[in-house]
């Protein structure tokens, strides 16, 4: 059985006040064509369908077009909510949609939705695990021993009683420890949202969402599909793609990717004003890309943003890198360091030494120790 794995669509997103809706429409249409060409048996959508919990009418309409396109192509959908989605809104009409082979995770109530499929190798169970916070699992399972994201996900999966002799697929939206993040992702201080890859060991394939760079997590079959578009300039070097997963007999999973070609790329340019405006520096096509331009002129160019946009209409961000700005950054860095608390400085030092953030219990211990020392000093 063959699946397409996508996630983090963030429909309705604005980047530096530029609407991405038309770019999203273009890439969603491209994905439908890829799924048809690949003859997939279903599409796994790993959360963050929308960019906001209350999406705009235009965003909802665009996603409706996408889902309708998949339904017309007779491609089933297995979808979960992410941390940017409202689980209640996304799952509206879920029972009705199942008549069209569109399966959506419900608000977590202690049970995960499970869909059983069959092919020539036997049954495949597809589990839908929406984005979970520890408090939601603690409430649903009536347990007071769940305090971390990892404990919450482990408890939710333990309730499933997974048959590991058969093939199992999980669609989830969590941050697996070690994943390479981007600026456009929502993060928790100190890595408190970390979940170990070992938590997902019972699944033949795990379709992950939440991280914007496509990547595997230790094994080929534990993967983030990444966003279909670049949503920050920290992603300028990303190669966006659709993940294709083929499950054969138990233990045999093939994973490949199909590149996505955006309507407009997102790039960084650097040089003097004369350099970046020279005609041999751009083409009719790439000057329409979304750009961050860093000017290296020692003196600011009056009206540079407006002037550059006559050449590059989709210039999103203009920066300077010269002696003045470097000195300002150094001063700001010192001021920022001086404003940090003792705990924040210790956390940075710990992570530098150990290449991992402090655990919650370690943070609590150090916080108490600092407080005790302050009291002794007084």
TrEMBL record:
Keyword annotations from UniProtKB, A to Z: DNA recombination, DNA replication, Endonuclease, Exonuclease, Hydrolase, Nuclease
Residues annotated as domain Nuclease SbcCD subunit D C-terminal: 263-351
Keyword Transmembrane helix: no
Coiled-coil segments: none
Function description: SbcCD cleaves DNA hairpin structures. These structures can inhibit DNA replication and are intermediates in certain DNA recombination reactions. The complex acts as a 3'->5' double strand exonuclease that can open hairpins. It also has a 5' single-strand endonuclease activity.
Subunit field text: Heterodimer of SbcC and SbcD.
Family according to the record: Belongs to the SbcD family.
Stated name of the protein: Nuclease SbcCD subunit D
Organism: Blautia wexlerae
